[in-house]
Target: Probable succinyl-diaminopimelate desuccinylase
Amino acid sequence: MNDTNTQKQQLFQAVEEMRPEIIGFLQRLIQIPSENPPGNYSEISTFLQEELTDLGFEVQVISVPDEMTSAAGLPTPRKNVIATLRGSGEGRNLIFNSHLDTVPAGDPEQWDYPPFSGMIANGRIYGRGATDSKGRLSAYIMAAVALARTSLTRNGDVIIAATCDEETGGILGAGYINQNGHVHGDMVIVEGYSNHIVRAMAGVLQLKITTDGIPAHAGYKWKGLNAVEKMAKVVQGLENLQKDLEQEPSSIPGMKYTTVNIGTIQGGTKVNVVPATCEIEVDFRVIPEHSLDQIYNRVVSLLEVLEKNDPAFKVKLTRITDFQTDPTITQEDSPLISELQQAVQEVTGHTLPVVGVLAQADTRWFIQNGIPGINYGPGTSENNIHGFNEYMEIEDLIQTTKILTVLAKNIVC
Ligand SMILES: [Zn+2]
Model:
C-alpha cells in the first residue's frame, strides 16, 4: 500500500471506531432543546464548551452584547461557539459552520418518537435538529476529532463555528462572528446535504407595492376609484416580468431562473365599498446572473409604463430590507470544490452534482467576509427537515463524517 492509501485506511478506521461516539454525540445534542424562537443557547453552548475542550479543541464562547440582543427585541442571550483544533500554523485553515438553533418541534403528539429524545429506529436517529443542523454539527466535530486521533501532522487549523439564529437570518450568529473578526480561515463548509454540493445561492429582494384609489359606495362606483382593479394591472405586469425572466435562465444547475412570488395581497374593507387601497408584497429569488438593483429597476419601469398609460393610476413602491441579500457564488474551479469532490471520490468512488439553490444560508456571511464557501453535510432534503419525525440516517452520518475527515486531512495536513 502506498502512503496515501495507508493514511486513508487510518482515517476510515478512526471514524469506524468512533461510530458509537458519533451517534451518541448527535443524540446528546438533540436532547438539549435549542428552539428558535425564542433561541436558547446557554445550555448547548456550555455543553459544547466542556465537550470540545475535553476533545482537544481551544474553545471560545462569543456572547453577543446584551444591548444588541435587546435592540433586536430578542428575549434570550445569543452565544456563538468557536472551537479550534490547532495545527502548526503553516497550512491552510478549514472552517466548518453549522447553526445551534432549530425550528420549534411543533406538537409533540405528531411525532412518532419524542422530538428531544434522539431515539434510534430503522437505522435512523430521530429528533428536532437530527439533520438541520445538529447532524451536520456532529459530523463536522467528529471529522476533526477523527483526524486528531490519527498520527498525521496538521499544518493548518480545523475550526468549528457553531452559530446562533440561522433559522431567523443569522445576523447575530454567523453574521456577528464574521463582522467582528472572530473567525479566520481559507475556506468554509457550511451546513448542507450529502447528495450534492451547493456553490451558489440566490439573492433575496422583497418589495411592497401599494395602489391608491378613492372610496365610494358600490352603487355610485363612478364616484370612486377601485384600488384593487388598479392592482390587478400590477399583478399582470409582474406575471409578464416572470415570463421574461424565465427566458433568462441561470447557467448554474438547480437555480432555474429569477422567481417572482406575490406572497400577500390586501385590499378593500367591505364588499359594497369601492376599495381605497390595495397592497401586495412580492419576493424575488435572484440568480447570480442578475443583481438586486437590475430586478428592482425592471419593476420600476413596469410601474412607469402603467402610470403613463393611465393618469388615474397611483402607485407606491418600497423595498423591504429585513431579508435583503445579494446572490452569492463560489467559483466552479474553486479548490474547495475540487478537494471536496476528491474526498467524496476517495470514500464513495463517485463525485457529486454541483448546484445552486434559490434559498439562503449562513454561507453568505463568510463569502461577504472574503472566505469562499460551499454547502455540504450529512442528510438530505428527504429527512423531514422542519417537519415532524426529522431524522438522520446513521449510515449517511458515518459516511459523510469519513468524507469530511478525508477533506480535512487533504486541506490541513
Ligand atoms: Zn439549517
Notes: Residues 227-246 form the longest helix (20 residues).
